[in-house]
Amino acid sequence: MASAADQGAVVRQSPWILSWVVVLAFATRAAARWYLGAADFWTNGYIFFFSMAQSIAGGRGMTHHAAIASRVPLYPAFLAVITFGHKAFLPILFAQSLIGAATVL
Fold first, then answer.
1. Of 82, 45, 50, 46, which Cα lies nearest the Cα of 64?
2. What percent of the chain has pLDDT over 70?
3. Could you give the maximum distance between any two Cα atoms of the chain, in Å?
């Protein structure tokens, strides 16, 4: 059975271990997305959300090619906020990696 001193040492190390896990999660997600590249990001399912994000950033609301969008607006609104409607891959990569790492907590 572990002594109280041993248990205290584990508790003091826990924040550092968790910090390293969060950093590793962020780095892994960012590296994977970076490896796949911007072209993969835009062609594999995200262009629909991004066109809605451009519509939001342009003040036209939740529309997609002149039709009212029928999807939940949170992700397109998130994209509109971090890209201001521009096709910017790095802010999306950074923000998604940060959110992914935060799920570790």
1. 50
2. 77
3. 67
